[in-house]
Amino acid sequence: MDNIFTPETLKVIQNEIPLAVWDTLYVTILSTLFAFVIGLPLGVLLVVGEKDGVRPLPVWLMKTLNVIINLLRSIPFLILMVLVFPLSRLIIGTAVGTTATIVPLVVAAFPFVARLVESSLREVNPNVIEAAQSLGATPFQIITKVMIPESVPSLISNITIAITTILGYSAMSGAIGGGGLGKIAIMDGYYRFNTILMLIPVILLILIVQGFQNLGTFLATKSDKRLK
Amino acid sequence: MIRLQNICKTFDDAGGKVEALKNITLDIGDGEIYGIIGMSGAGKSTLVRCINMLERPTEGEVVIDGVEMSKLSPAELRKKRRDITMIFQGFNLLMQKNCLKNVCFPMEISGMPKDKAKTRAMELLELVGLPDKALAYPAQLSGGQQQRVAIARALATEPKVLLCDEATSALDPNTTHQILELIKDINKKTGITVVVITHQMSVVEEICTHVAILDNGEVVESGTVGSVFSSPKSNAAKRLVFPSGEDEEVSNPENEKRLRVVFNGAKAASAPLISQMAIDKGILVNIVAASTRSIGDSTYGSMLLGIPGGDEEVKAVKEYLESVANISAEEV
Fold this sequence. Notes:
The complex is a heterodimer. Chain A has helices at about 5-50, 60-75, 75-85, 85-90, 100-120, 125-135, 140-150, 150-170, 180-190, 195-225. By secondary structure, chain A is mainly α. In chain A, helix 9 packs antiparallel against helix 10. Chain A is elongated, with a radius of gyration of 21 Å. Chain B is of the alpha/beta class. Chain B has a six-stranded mixed sheet with strand order 6-7-8-3-9-10, with helices on both faces. A four-stranded antiparallel sheet of chain B has the order 2-1-4-5, with helices on one face. In chain B, about 45% of the residues are buried. The interface of A and B includes residues 134, 137 and 146 of A.
């Protein structure tokens, strides 16, 4: 065991891992937040803009929206990251490092989040929406006071899926200039044949995913007033 | 006053056009409880949705208090809908909001200040008999209680018309009776016009003043409940009054007259009444068919009597029965 935990390895564990955990959490949470800010309205449009939706939109617009979302979702994340380097430089000033990873993560995640929001909103009982219409609600009121509040438990479950997926992407970004736990696992562990430095970040990532998942499930269940 | 004039509604289906409503003309007077009854697929739900334009008629006019609904702008229509609210078979409450917030919802979207809305919502919950459930969520309530909350919500904007779309179809007979009593009570207190969509005869018999029978997208009969049910002329009406076709199966001997008796909440059990008549008048009537039910101490439904003898006997029986409140009789 002595030769596995070399002084160099211990140094990385003590000095770099705590910061890497913080970097990973910070990138994941901020990326999820931004992806949600863009994905939520898009998901709403995907549902309300349909032909039979609450506020039908022109067919060409809906088609374009669907094509863009599907297109972004089909590009592999590592390729997408390289493709948005210019955008990262424009927004953050650099294409490498922890903060710069937020840009490709958001670009990769918002179409995914839009689809998750879409599926959550589709779960809302159409009869309840009809009832709101019969009471004179505007399309905007139906979105903000019926569709979104009624799907909160499902939205929380889906945000949990999004956050764990984004966490996985952020680890992947370590391969080409991103920071955090993924970088240590790939750069210090895998490339240098240091099994310990590869395994510790992976175990930490597993624990973080577990934490997010448990929290998400707890909040989703707690917020659901149908379960009382 | 609601006037439906030549309403047609056609749906484009995969297999072509489906005519859901064919040339429907109805007048519903203020303060009436108007039943629209028909079998599944007769077009009842489509028709009631044409009244508040949740479904736009393909042809025809819906005029409510002189306003033609199809000519309203979207904003005007939304405002008008506060006057014509609706309750549903599935209650359709907001499941993530408590009862108080559900009742506040229509007032909130109409821009009423929050505390004013809250005060009125509490009054309404009191009116429907659920003041202690204000903070409960719909999932914690029974079906009947949820429908009461839905009624409170529908009344929040002080509507002139209440549309009930199969509002009691998901409830047991006892709860149905309580909900119908509540609607009747509200109609009496506020003079609100009520349109009741149902497939249940018992519902129409229990609360409606007027009825229209819808069959295959057409109104086949309409009028007061007494007149339509005591002498149903159309096949659809006959099917509803005697679901198993009793009055057609039973033979009609020439020396027997037929009298249809309608019990509209009469405070008398039906059997002793007929026996009592036999004793009092000495006329032995034959019960050809009967479809009555007792709700509380009141009887609803109808009965077909065969009366031996001539017009005199029929007249005597008719007078005898009609001397009891809420019973009407007509020769068929």
